[in-house]
Amino acid sequence: INAEYGGHQRSRGCILLMKVTLSFLFQHGICLMLLIDFCHNQNNPYNDNDEDREALLELYNSTEGEYWNCFIDPWYTNVSMCNWGGIACLDNVLPHKVRSIYLVQCVLIGTIPESIGNLNALE
Fold first, then answer.
1. Could you count the other beta carbons within 10 Å of the beta carbon of residue 71?
2. Which residues contact 88 (CB under 8 A, 6 or more apart)?
3. In degrees rounded to 5, what are phi and psi of residue 15?
4. In which band, very low, low, confident or very high, does the pLDDT at 64 lie, cut at 50, 70 and 90?
5. How far apart are CA 70 and CA 75, in angstroms?
6. What is the pLDDT of residue 116?
7. Cβ pair 51, 118 in contact under 8 A
8. Measured in Å, how far apart are the chain's first and last C-alpha atoms?
9. What whole-number percentage of the chain has pLDDT above 70?
10. What is the mean pLDDT of the chain?
11. Taking residues 35-58, what's their average pLDDT?
12. Where is mean pLDDT largest: 18-32, 44-58, 68-82, 103-117?
């Protein structure tokens, strides 16, 4: 079961663990940084390959992505790159890897960045 917590999905078990442990930690004055990091990594809202994500953001920025005039969903950085319009990722691979880029009729203006070559799972 998942729950919305702080803008990200978290498992209810992790939230309960956080609440119980936070109560204990506050009572005993212990640092809680490791616990929060543990729960965040358990439910990473993106789980994207960092190199792939960076390459796509460089493509977007170097080709005036905010002015693309095509019928794709916007590229919001607060969601997985696999949910960005025109992007498909490999199935059942973590972290997510870009399988294809489909930006037909988007009118990209600019230079394709060299980092696009880092997308080593493109088909």
1. 10
2. 82, 98, 99, 100, 102
3. -65, -45
4. very high
5. 12
6. 97
7. yes
8. 35
9. 63
10. 75
11. 70
12. 103-117
Amino acid at the residue 5: Y
Give the CA distances from residue 65 to residues 19, 51, 93, 117, in Å, rounded to whole numbers and listed in that order.
41, 19, 27, 19
Kind and range of the H or E run holding 12? helix 12-28
- CA dist 12 and 108 (Å) reads 43
Q: Does the predicted model carry a pTM greater than 0.90?
A: no
Amino acid at 37: D
d(CA 39, CA 111) in angstroms, rounded, equals: 39
In terms of C-beta distances under 8 Å and separation of at least 24 residues, what long-range contacts does 15-24 make, across chains too? 15/39
Q: How far apart are CA 86 and CA 11, in angstroms?
A: 30
CA distance 41 to 45: 9
